[in-house]
Amino acid sequence: MKRLAIILVLFLFLAGSPCTVDADGPNVHDFIISDVTPVSFSVIWIADEPALPTIKVFSDPEGQNDNTSQLQVSSFPTRNGDSSIALSAKSAGIMKIRVSGLNPNTTYYFQTVTTAESSMETTYYPETEPFMSVYTENEVSRTTIADYTNKYFSNDLLKIDNCYLPDGHTPAKGTLVIATTDQADYPVSAFVGDGIDDTLAYIDLNNFFHKYSGNNFYLDAGTKIIITRFMGTNGILIQEASIPANTKLAKITTVAPPIIVPYGNEVLVVICKQF
């Protein structure tokens, strides 16, 4: 896998406000909608100080119908319930909220709420309508057509190795790794150190949903992806790459050996975990 570009930047990456929001509470910026499924979505952003994130979710663009109390809202959602992830993320101003209990193929509107830990002052974004919106996906598929045959999904995981802060030696635990591809509606993300080593992150490629069908889909070898290390106040690192060939697809119950592909001075590992 050839590394095409590495850029260290502090700017708006995928979606959200074109500028920092100045308020009595924390300044907030770089909003990203991610991990959208038929029943859930996440929002990621940066605050300029340690803060507590939450969200208000509406069924209408004017924000008259607040659905938040009927939904499940998780701050700093992790796979393993590791509270140290939230502590590390907050210290870098990295905010992430997951909303669950939604309906497929439905538009929801939302307002982020960011409360400073030190002063308890709060920033609402957007402050007023129009609110940001997200459209939930269609359905989760177990199989897909690839290479003219019906193939089972393999729960492909990208293992992102050597995740350090810009100083090159501090483990980046609690920062986010975000993957996106032109074929998908929204990016997918994972915390560094979530149940694994503090310098690793796993991205589940099966959580990509196609921008036309709204179903999750098989990524062919050579599919271009962008790996973004979202490090909050420490910056944003963007790496362009592509999906390697995967010949391990089969309906079996074992975990196939990892496919290891050189990635500059780093390594991306694709682990094919079959059904």
**How confident overall, as mean pLDDT?**
80
Q: Could you tell me the strand content as a percent range?
A: 35-45%
Please state the overall shape, judged from the principal axes of the Cα atoms: globular
Fraction of residues in H or I helices: under 10%
Major β-sheet profile: 5 strands, antiparallel
Number of distinct beta strands:
19
Major β-sheet strand ordering:
1-17-16-13-14
Structural class by helix and strand composition: mainly beta
Number of helices: 1
Distance between the termini: 26 Å
SSE string: EEEEEHEEEEEEEEEEEEEE
Gyration radius (Cα, Å) is 19 Å
Low-pLDDT ranges: 1-19, 249-275
Describe the structure.
The chain is mainly β and 275 residues long. The chain has 1 helix and 19 strands. Strands 1-17-16-13-14 form a 5-stranded antiparallel β-sheet, with no helix packed on it. It has a 4-stranded antiparallel β-sheet with strand order 2-3-6-5. Strands 4, 7, 8 and 9 form a 4-stranded antiparallel β-sheet that branches. It is globular, with a radius of gyration of 19 Å.
Please outline what is shown here.
This protein has 275 residues and is mainly beta. It has one helix at residues 83-91, and strands at 5-9, 28-34, 40-47, 51-58, 72-75, 94-100, 107-116, 122-125, 132-135, 143-146, 149-152, 157-160, 176-180, 188-191, 201-204, 224-230, 236-242, 259-263, 266-271.
